[in-house]
UniProtKB/TrEMBL annotation:
Gene3D superfamilies: P-loop containing nucleotide triphosphate hydrolases, Ribonuclease Inhibitor, ROC domain from the Parkinson's disease-associated leucine-rich repeat kinase 2. Residues 37-48 have a biased composition (Pro residues). This is Malignant fibrous histiocytoma amplified sequence 1. Residues 399-641 form the Roc domain. Residues 19-52 are annotated as: Disordered. It comes from Pavo cristatus (Indian peafowl). Keywords: Leucine-rich repeat, Nucleotide-binding, Repeat. It holds the Pfam family LRR_8. GO terms for biological process: regulation of signal transduction. GO terms for molecular function: nucleotide binding.
């Protein structure tokens, strides 16, 4: 059934059509009857077909037809519906059409028609009511269409979209029955005058004729018009005549240059949908408020600063998109829009949401990112309307509290001077400016993992920093990535005396890439330590060099992204069909939607570069003045409202008290049960039903861990972050002696036991494997009870640090027997590869297997620890796994899969992570079924890295089979697209003679998350 699209795609299309009110129902819409069998498949038995002459509907779409012989027409003279969609017709099959005088519907879309000749062949189809000529090359030979088209007097629907027409035939106005006309995406230089005579018209689509420029006053004549599309037509103003289209229900005006609407616009009293996105509106057009029936209003990407209080008059409004404007306040009355289901406010300047916002309980599509929110705080807003409601109720119960507390993260290479810098800052006492700097007398040891402490930097103003110091040893990167979060102030520390320009990347550039990919728009302060050991000139030169090289790296990255935006733009400028026509083209087969998404992603990356606040601040721990200067600098940055609006967030007093109670000195336990926490809640004045939202806020703002959606963990609150971090730090330890010391300390161990423990440690450092009881020993004194141990292991699993290799499914975990694998420790293991050798299947028989391989590449940086975390994440999907340092072989059911990481080899071959499987061609769906969940799991994980740039490709399975070292790659976006209708094979551009079956490039059902969406 060539007409049938996969159900999901079909649904998407229907939704899109519904949204645009573009459903053309009613009589005159007999869909072409499907003919049996898949395209290209064997013809069904002739016995089941009616005699040809009686056939009423025939679907010949996607058959690669170059012509339709006259005999076919002659034999099918009874046809009423004929689809010749997606063929290769260059000319109208005039001879065949001559016999088809009864045709009511003819679909010639997606062919290669360059003209319609003199039009005689079509004009003969007197009964034609529906004609589609979209996606051809009409206009390529002569600027217009033959006048005889106007002889199709019974025509009701005409689709001429996506051609190259520069004008329409004069007589077109004679088509008195025409209800729907699509002339979008042509090259019309102005609004075609003949259209004004089409008074029966109910739907008109002129979008994408980029130079239409203006509409005539006479458009008022189209009084029956219900749907009018004028997207991207270069309109700078609208005529008053438009306001007389009293029947209009949907009006698309997005992507123009409108600054205002005409005075009479409120005359469009039937309007239900209005799209004014991507225009130049500086003020909210008041006329819109007088359209009481409006259900959908799109005003994204304008320059609106103020919304009128009377917005609430639009009582029927279900959809309101206001993203990417300059809105500072929402009118209080917005909470009266009780029908709202979609509210999109992303990318504005909103700091405070009006009281009673929680009343908008019907809103299911809610976007508020990229606003300087303080009340409710960002963390609450992001969780959705119910959380906002809870916050606002809480605020009404107890007075607001303001407590400035900012996360300060110190990062930089080993021996950069972070620990000493932190000590100097924290011990610096403003009251004794001339005292000796105390810190250097206690040279610190190399730090391990992460250290967290509170620093009251300004007691007067009550400003506290929560300082996270990340040790420079790269083995801690996996764990440290968890603590790079938005809304913190980052201090990147460089040892200036050791610095040489050749080491810019490992000492500075790398950290900026790492941070930037985890925290877009991160605020970074550069500090150069050991200034006392450098001569003045040297100091100046090194600071300047770092400054220059940061600028260069930024420039390179931004230029790279900009050129990608440009490439996507160019591709978008082309027709989708053109993009599908040859696998050589960039973004082969990628849909416009996916391209737009990709562009938005690049633009997001470009707009959210790290914010590097200063040139390098030279610093010596010996110099009191410099210490104080640094402290003042950090304070002034922290208090800058534009940089850290969050610092001024308003919290209900009860939430703040709850936070304090959780951190009081007597709360030293590792975790609290929900009930313990609820008791503290009561002390803070929070009844149990109000505790959840407070805990959720504290979790989101990084104060404690509370996993409200986890089956077991939600019964607990991990309030003691420093102790948790101590535990994490244990698993960063790679020194056998230190580990052994921990195991052997304070227990009475005999020699035999000691040897045994020794083996465990060796095994751990090589294979990352440990039994639970040894983990318990290692974690002494942090862990006292078995419950402690089980909880911590669940937590580590949830964080993606380890997984249980022998946990019995559906049975509770048996602490004593369980073994845990920590993938970041896997050192030199090479997984056994029997199943993969030369495409041999499980039973060892050789067969002609086709390879599927999805490759992710990471041109700037490969997220530290991603491979280890990913290998934990996929554990629930695979069986019989065998892990190597860079590779995992496993099975999904009976199908083998392999996940492999390949580190970068020079700038031209970046780090890659690939997921592969194989199967014979008829069974290739099994291979897709094996890898798709793994791909989706990776996509989910990558969403934790919103500033990361990476690409996804589907490697050509023919190239892979040939063992080509440089296989061709198809765009990864194809994974989230349905297989194109009618296409069976794709030519591999690397080897023109090879055809790749479409089933080896597109999965049977598109993946849910586009690999490139964030
Ligand atoms: N002369 C001088 N020595 C410094 C300065 N800052 C740090 N040091 C010394 O440099 C060495 C490393 O400093 P740390 O503060 O331990 O370095 P770190 O960045 O914490 O290193 P890791 O913990 O390993 O990541 C220590 O011996 C410090 O005493 C400084 O400004 N001047
Ligand atoms: Mg240190």
């Amino acid at each position: 059934m060539a007409q049938t699209e996969p159900p999901k795609a079909a649904r998407l299309w229907r939704d899109a059509a519904l949204r645009a009110r573009k459903l053309r129902g009613g009589p005159g819409e007999p869909e072409p009857e499907p003919d049996e069998g898949p395209p290209g498949g064997p013809p069904p038995p002739a016995a089941r077909r009616p005699p040809l002459g009686e056939l009423e509907a025939l679907n010949l779409s996607g058959r690669g037809l170059e012509e339709l012989p006259e005999e076919v027409g002659a034999a099918l003279s009874g046809l009423r519906v004929l689809s010749l969609r997606r063929n290769r017709l260059c000319r109208l099959p005039a001879a065949a059409l001559r016999h088809l005088g009864r045709l009511a519907e003819l679909d010639l879309s997606h062919n290669r028609l360059r003209g319609l000749g003199d039009g005689r062949a079509l004009a003969g189809l007197r009964g034609l009511r529906k004609l589609s000529l979209s996606h051809n090359e009409l206009g390529a030979e002569s600027p217009g269409l033959p006048p005889r088209l106007a002889e199709l007097a019974r025509l009701e629907e005409l689709d001429l979209s996506f051609n190259r027409l520069r004008r329409l035939p004069e007589g077109l106005g004679c088509l008195r029955h025409l209800r729907a006309l699509d002339i979008d995406h042509n090259l019309l230089p102005c609004f075609p005058a003949p259209l004004l005579e089409l008074t029966a018209l109910e739907e008109l689509d002129c979008s994408g004729n980029r130079h239409l420029g203006a509409l005539p006053e006479g458009i008022a004549a189209l009084r029956r018009l219900k749907i009018l599309w004028l997207s991207g037509t270069g309109l700078a103003a609208l005529p008053e005549g438009l306001c007389q289209l009293g029947a209009l229900e949907s009006l698309m005006l997005d992507g123009n240059q409108l600054r205002t609407l005409p005075a009479g616009f409120s005359g469009l009293q039937r309007l239900k949908m209005l799209n004014l996105s991507s225009n130049l509106l500086g003020e909210f057009p008041a006329a819109i408020l007088a359209l009481p029936g409006l259900e959908e209003l799109y005003l994204s990407r304008n320059q609106l600063a103020v919304l009128p209080p009377r917005l609430c008059q639009l009582r029927q409004l279900r959809t309101l998109w206001l993203d990417n404007n300059r809105i500072r306040y929402l009118p209080d009355s917005i909470v009266l829009l009780h029908s709202l289901e979609e509210l999109v406010l992303q990318g504005n300047q909103i700091a405070i949401l009006p009281e009673g916002f929680g009343q908008l309980s019907r809103v299911t599509l809610w976007k508020i990112k990229d606003n300087p929110l303080i009340q409710p705080p960002y963390e609450v807003c992001m969780k959705g309307i119910p959380y906002i409601a809870a916050y606002q109720q809480e605020l009404a119960h107890s007075q607001p509290a303001l407590k400035p507390r900012l996360k300060l993260v110190l990062m930089g290479l080993k021996d950069a001077g972070k620990t000493l810098l932190r000590r100097c800052l924290m011990e610096e006492d403003g009251a004794q400016p001339r005292g000796p700097c105390p810190a250097p007398s206690l040279p610190p040891d190399s730090s391990q993992g992460i250290e967290v402490m509170d620093w009251t930097a300004d007691a007067e103003r009550g400003l506290t920093f929560i300082v996270y110091e990340l040790a420079g040893d790269p083995t801690y990167d996996v764990i440290q990535s968890f603590f790079l979060s938005p809304g913190a102030l980052y201090v990147l520390v460089v040892n200036l005396s050791a610095y040489v320009p050749q080491h810019f990347y490992p000492s500075v550039g790398y950290f900026l890439h790492w941070l930037g990919s985890k925290v877009p728009h991160a605020v970074v302060c550069m500090v150069g330590t050991h200034a006392d050991l450098c001569a003045e000139r040297e100091l100046e030169e090194k600071c300047l060099d770092i400054h220059h090289q940061i600028a260069q790296q930024e420039k390179r990255d931004a230029e790279g992204l900009q050129s990608l935006v440009q490439q996507v733009d160019e591709a978008l400028g082309q027709d989708f069909d053109l993009r599908c026509s040859s696998p050589h083209t960039a973004f082969y087969g990628v849909s416009d939607k996916n391209l737009r998404r990709k562009k938005a992603q690049f633009q997001y990356l470009l707009n959210h570069r790290p914010q590097i606040l200063s040139p390098v601040l030279p610093f010596s721990c010996w110099d009191h003045c410099q210490v104080r200067r640094l402290r003042d600098k950090l304070l002034s940055v922290a208090e800058h409202r534009d940089i850290f609006p969050n610092l001024h967030r308003v919290l209900p007093k009860s939430w703040q008290v709850l936070e304090e109670l959780h951190f009081q000195p007597q709360a030293q336990q590792l975790w609290l049960s929900w009930w313990d926490s609820a008791r503290l809640g009561l002390q803070a004045g929070l009844t149990e039903d109000r505790l959840q939202s407070a805990l959720s806020y504290l979790h989101e703002s990084g104060k404690l861990l509370y996993f409200e959606e986890h089956l077991t963990l939600r019964e607990y609150v991990f309030h003691n972050l420093p102790r948790l971090i101590d535990i994490l730090n244990v698993f960063c330890q790679r020194d056998a002696t230190v580990l052994l010391q921990k195991l052997l300390s304070d227990t009475h161990v005999d020699e035999l036991r000691a040897t045994q423990l020794h083996h465990y440690v060796e095994g751990f450092l090589l294979h990352g494997l440990l039994p639970a009881h040894v983990i318990r020993l290692l974690l002494k004194p942090h862990i006292q009870s078995r419950e402690d141990l089980q909880l911590i292991l669940e937590l580590l699993e949830k964080m993606g640090l380890c997984y249980c290799v022998n946990k019995p499914k559906s049975k509770p975990l048996n602490g004593a027997a369980a073994w845990y694998k920590f993938p970041c420790y896997v050192k030199n293991e090479v997984p056994h590869a029997e199943a993969w050798i030369n495409g041999a299947n499980l039973s060892g028989q050789s067969f002609v297997a086709e390879q599927l391989q999805i490759e992710y590449s990471f041109p700037f940086i490969f997220p530290p620890g991603l491979f280890a975390r990913y290998s934990v994440q996929i554990n629930s999907h695979v069986v019989q796994r065998s892990d190597g340092k860079y590779q995992i072989y496993a099975y999904r059911g009976k199908v083998p899969v392999v996940v492999s990481y390949r580190p970068a080899r020079g700038a031209l071959q970046p780090d890659t992570l690939s997921i592969a499987s194989h199967a014979s061609l008829p069974n290739i769906w099994t291979a897709w079924q094996a890898i798709t969940p793994l791909v989706e799991e990776l996509n989910v994980l990558l969403q934790e890295w919103p500033g990361l740039y990476y690409t996804v490709h589907v490697l050509c399975s023919k190239c892979l089979k040939r063992g080509s070292p440089n296989p061709h790659s198809f765009p990864g976006e194809l994974l989230s697209q349905p297989r194109p209708e009618g296409l069976t094979e794709i030519i591999c551009p690397k080897n023109g003679s090879e055809r790749v079956n479409v089933a080896l490039v597109y999965p049977p059902t598109p993946t849910v998350i586009s690999p490139c969406s964030k």
